[in-house]
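We read letters as residues; the fold follows as tokens. A sample entry reads:
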Amino acid sequence: MADVKRIYVEKKEPYAVAAKELKQELKSYLGIDTLSEVRVLIRYDVESISEDVYKKALVTVFSEPPVDNVYEETFPYDADNSKVFSVEFLPGQFDQRADSAEQCVKFFNENETPVIKTAVTYVLTGTVTDEEKNRIKEHCINPVDSRQAAEDIPETLVTEFILCVWPGQTSPNRR
């Protein structure tokens, strides 16, 4: 039950307003006309959830089947003509989407304590240069509260904190 599952959720084409708006922004503000398509996917990494609860949450908490496409583990894209990157909140920043998902998943089984982390994945299709991709990243990543996320699935989502004890301290709470 401790393995991490990855889910990607993307609005179906008629409902992909955020992707259309971002494509227009990148063309008009950054002058990048080589983009043929921009996709925006919400990425959920989920841990400590039973298979039964996971299956229920997949089509109720994480997505709305009439308007969303759901992909587990990976999603289809043109690897030869696309550049992909994901953006996540910095550690310590409040992730409202993840918090809401955790609370909703607990409605299925209050005895489970799910751990959920989210990111936004961008897929840029076209003849985008590395320099243009970097400009797009700068546009999408607010360094005050977010950073580029790793693409590999982590072994665990549980964050372990290391307590530091200064020389002469008897416990981490006293000086």
User: Anything to note?
Assistant: The mean pLDDT is 91. The radius of gyration is 19 Å. The first helix runs from residue 17 to 28. The first strand starts at residue 5 and ends at 11.
